């Protein structure tokens, strides 16, 4: 259901980037629950007591982090000035290879009240 709000926990630095409007793509691996995310759906990202409400504008799937970084805007994924190597390392720090094998989702977001 696209109008169903979903809460997703996220590390605070990434939450801050989303709240600032800098990070407009959230990267996740293809867990069954993540695969159910659809355009139009409201996602409430939270870290501790901080939260940020967004709406999904699109979801793209890739076979690997490398393929995702080849196709998506790196500035929309990480903080300004992060290199491709740094972004790849950040993704792989969060998700080990066996999780990456589930597929990689680039969830496109926009802030919403």
Automatic annotation (TrEMBL):
Domain ASCH: from-to ranges: 8-113
Record Gene3D superfamilies: Hypothetical protein
Classification via InterPro entries: ASCH_domain, PUA-like_sf
Signal peptide: none
Superkingdom classification of source: Bacteria
Protein name, as recorded: ASCH domain-containing protein
Species for this entry: Kitasatospora xanthocidica
């Amino acid at each position: 259901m696209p109008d169903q709000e979903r809460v997703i926990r996220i590390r605070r630095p990434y939450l801050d980037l989303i709240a600032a409007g800098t990070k407009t793509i959230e990267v996740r691996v293809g867990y069954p629950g993540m695969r159910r995310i659809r355009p139009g759906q409201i996602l409430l990202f939270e870290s501790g007591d901080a939260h940020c409400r967004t709406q999904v504008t699109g979801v793209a799937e890739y076979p690997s982090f490398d393929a995702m970084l080849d196709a998506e805007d790196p500035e929309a994924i990480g903080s300004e000035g992060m290199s491709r190597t740094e972004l790849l390392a950040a993704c792989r720090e969060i998700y080990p290879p066996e999780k990456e094998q589930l597929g990689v989702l680039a969830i496109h977001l926009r802030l919403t009240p």
